[in-house]
């Protein structure tokens, strides 16, 4: 199994679920995490990543961290100072249309979105609300482009798009697609030589459907145009994702692997969860398992079955512990 991993946690792309997978693997194998200074939850995002943002980093020594997975704005040379050169770099992408809809609900309080009554109103005249000079404007346009370290307001020329895609390909070993989450986890498992249980998960940090809004065809087109750089990233790497599956695994074996993953997930839901699925925030009984509620989104969580033996209870709890609580528990263990 590969134990040195860099995960670029792209906002609103099932990345909290992936982070839980990395937390569990790291904890089980006693690996060191590159935590933000003082145990924060982000590596001084939205600034470009710097090695000095990592707790315990010492400039003179060889890279000494196994897993880097907290929110950062990617900057490859600085990341290389923190993790060994053998590290596998990966990230997960999401269709920019759904990403924008999700961001509008989640980051409603930011400067670009707070005055717009609806996403539709924002898209009608985005520059009435959006000012690229304001510090939190990146949530409103080409958010994936921004997280990968590029200028979200850059001109969309073929040359620029080509250079950006080439730069991402040069830095990352694997780009996953959140719409094909199970296939992505199989691909991750194969790439990292991990076992099935290491990539099983329950969806974390997901919204209650009551806070999702449906999008008309014209809005979909407007979102694609507004997030054109993100759209270029997404369509390119969606294509390479399937090419890689065809080359390394094949569709038939992929289907078998996905079924095995889903079976195991259903087994674990049966073992661990009351009601076998997620519940609304007000129904979460254990406050230590309450996910952060943010913006206009209602973030779902889980209840664990009562009366489990200690070992099972520990495993189940790890699967459903929200990112902030898990991160701070691991931080305390490490420091």
UniProtKB/TrEMBL annotation:
GO cellular component terms, A-Z: Golgi membrane
Single GO MF descriptor: galactosylceramide sulfotransferase activity
Record keywords, A-Z: Glycoprotein, Golgi apparatus, Membrane, Signal-anchor, Transferase, Transmembrane, Transmembrane helix
Membrane topology of this protein: Single-pass type II membrane protein
Entry superkingdom: Eukaryota
Protein localization: Golgi apparatus membrane
Entry's Gene Ontology BP terms: glycolipid biosynthetic process
Signal peptide residue numbers: none
Record flagged with keyword GTP-binding: no
Pfam families: Gal-3-0_sulfotr
Family listed: Belongs to the galactose-3-O-sulfotransferase family.
Name assigned to this protein: Galactose-3-O-sulfotransferase 2
């Amino acid at each position: 199994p590969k134990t040195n991993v860099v995960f670029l946690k792209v906002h609103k792309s099932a990345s909290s679920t992936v982070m839980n997978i990395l937390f569990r693997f790291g904890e089980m194998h006693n690996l060191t995490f590159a935590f933000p200074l003082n145990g924060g939850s982000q590596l001084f995002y939205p600034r470009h990543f710097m090695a000095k943002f990592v707790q315990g980093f010492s400039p003179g020594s060889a890279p000494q961290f196994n897993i880097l997975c907290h929110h950062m704005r990617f900057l490859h040379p600085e990341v290389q100072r923190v993790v060994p050169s053998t590290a596998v770099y990966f990230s997960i992408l999401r269709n920019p249309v759904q990403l924008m809809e999700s961001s509008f609900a989640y980051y409603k309080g930011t400067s670009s979105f707070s005055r717009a009554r609806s996403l539709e109103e924002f898209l009608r005249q985005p520059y009435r609300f959006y000012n690229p000079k304001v510090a939190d404007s990146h949530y409103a346009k080409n958010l994936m482009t921004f997280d990968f370290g590029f200028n979200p307001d850059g001109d969309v020329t073929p040359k620029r798009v080509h250079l950006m895609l080439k730069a991402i390909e040069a830095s990352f070993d694997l780009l996953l697609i959140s719409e094909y989450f199970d296939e992505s986890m199989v691909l991750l498992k194969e790439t990292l030589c991990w076992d099935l249980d290491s990539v099983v998960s329950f969806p974390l940090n997901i919204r209650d459907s009551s806070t999702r809004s449906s999008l008309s065809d014209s809005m979909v087109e407007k979102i694609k145009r507004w997030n054109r750089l993100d759209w270029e990233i997404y369509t390119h790497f969606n294509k390479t994702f399937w090419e890689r599956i065809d080359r390394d695994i094949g569709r038939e074996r992929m289907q078998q692997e996905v079924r095995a993953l889903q079976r195991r997930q259903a087994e674990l839901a049966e073992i661990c969860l009351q009601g076998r699925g997620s519940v609304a925030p007000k129904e979460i009984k254990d406050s230590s398992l309450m996910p952060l509620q943010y913006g206009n989104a209602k973030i779902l969580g889980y209840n664990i079955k009562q009366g489990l033996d200690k070992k099972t209870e520990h495993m189940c709890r790890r699967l459903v512990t929200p990112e902030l609580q898990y991160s701070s528990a691991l931080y305390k263990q490490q420091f």
